[in-house]
Amino acid sequence: MKKYIVRLSAGERIQLQQLVDKGTVAAYRRKHAQVLLWADQAEGAPAWTDRQIADAARMNVRTVELLRQRLVEDGLTAALERKKQTPKPPKIDGAQQAKITALACSQPPAGHARWSLRLLADKVVELQIVESVGKDAIREVLKKTNCVPT
C-alpha cells in the first residue's frame, strides 16, 4: 500500500500541465511534472501504479516513490526541483595532506625502489595519520602536488 498519496488541486494540475506542455523548461522538471500528473489520485484520474509510471517515464520505481514523498512532505515546488545534495566533509584535512605529501617525497622503505600508492596508504594508516584510507584517496592528495612518488 502506498504511504504517500498524491492528490493535486485543480490549480496544481493546471500548473503541472503547463510545465509539461512548455518547451522552455528543464527536462528533469518536465519529467517530474509528468510523473506527478500520472501519480495524481484525484477523482476521475486514472490510477497508475508506481511501476507503470516508472516504465513510462523511464526511471526507477524508487525515484517515483521519492517524488511522491517529496510532494506530500515538502510541497509542489520541492517535488519539481532536484533534491539538494549535502556536501560530505573531506576525509583528509590539510594537515594530514601535508604529512602524506611529505611522506611521499621521502625515501621509500627498504626493499622498495619507490613509493606505490598502496604502500603509502598502508604507511599512512600505520603512522596513524588517518584511521583508514584507500590508494585512491592518496592519489587524490598527491595529484594536487608536484611530488610524484611512482
List the helices and strands and how they pair.
Blueprint lengths: L9 H12 L5 H13 L10 H8 L3 H14 L1 H5 L13 H12 L11 H10 L8 H9 L7
Provide key terms for this protein.
150 residues, mainly alpha, 2 domains, 8 helices, rod-shaped
Share of helical residues: 55-70%
Query: How is the main sheet built?
Result: none
What is the C-alpha radius of gyration, as a whole number of Å?
26 Å
Which strand-content bin applies to the residues? under 5%
Oligomer: single chain
How would you concisely characterize the structure shown here?
With 150 residues, the chain is mainly α. 55% of the residues lie in helices and 0% in strands.
Report what the structure shows.
By secondary structure, the protein is mostly helical. It folds into two domains: 10-80, no CATH class; 94-143. The chain is 55% helix and 0% strand. The chain is built from eight helices and no strands. The protein has helices at 10-21, 27-39, 50-57, 61-74, 76-80, 94-105, 117-126, 135-143. Helix 3 packs across helix 4. The longest helix has 14 residues, at 61-74. It is rod-shaped, with a radius of gyration of 26 Å.
